[in-house]
Amino acid sequence: xxxxxxxxxxxxxxxxxxxxxxxxxxxxxxxxxxxxxxxxxxxxxxxxxxxxxxxxxxxxxxxxxxxxxxxxxxxxxxxxxxxxxxxxxxxxxxxxxxxxxxxxxx
Amino acid sequence: xxxxxxxxxxxxxxxxxxxxxxxxxxxxxxxxxxxxxxxxxxxxxxxxxxxxxxxxxxxxxxxxxxxxxxxxxxxxxxxxxxxxxxxxxxxxxxxxxxxxxxxxxxxxxxxxxxxxxx
Lengths: 106, 118
Known about the structure:
The structure holds two protein chains of two kinds.
Chain A: E1 9-12, E2 18-23, E3 33-37, E4 44-47, E5 61-66, E6 69-74, E7 83-90, E8 95-97, E9 101-105
Parallel strand pairs in A: 1-9
Antiparallel strand pairs in A: 2-6, 3-4, 3-7, 5-6, 7-8, 7-9
Chain B: E1 3-6, E2 10-12, E3 18-25, E4 34-39, E5 45-52, E6 57-60, E7 69-73, E8 78-83, E9 92-98, E10 107-108, E11 112-116
Parallel strand pairs in B: 2-11
Antiparallel strand pairs in B: 1-3, 3-8, 4-5, 4-9, 5-6, 7-8, 9-10, 9-11
């Protein structure tokens, strides 16, 4: 089965940069997407097609791709960025989410 | 404005049946696939399956095939997730999600909490 693996947690100080990786064998062939989920809320799309940012998402959120790994980068982290982050990939017949990463702002 | 509005929280006993709903508005309902996503307590997101409301063609994730049914009624812009016999392990928050690109999800419902307990 198709799996996407993320680190369980990332800790970062305010103003620093957080990088969250997502690894999967299918990623060289398929786009990756990233969602932010805060406690008690539905997920929100923050990056689509590896590196595109939806309207309304701050510029400090960016995405990149290299081989079987995609990366979500949060620059100049703010306290409000503390949340769970999930990568997602798939095609028109199926979807799959990554294992999720909890970002803690120290 | 695109909105997905889900039905309210449910408390059921093991073995009971259940159908929860997701109503779309602000767009042509048949233009976007509806996906269902499970989140068990304290756990991550799991893609369950999707339906094309224009013809009700469905895909299911391998962990969910055979245990539940995804359907849609395009006349009332509503998609459904249905169980015939709930288990305690079905206790979770269930989200519907959609968007113009079938591969990712711009829009999410508010979630429906399903609790299965004897």
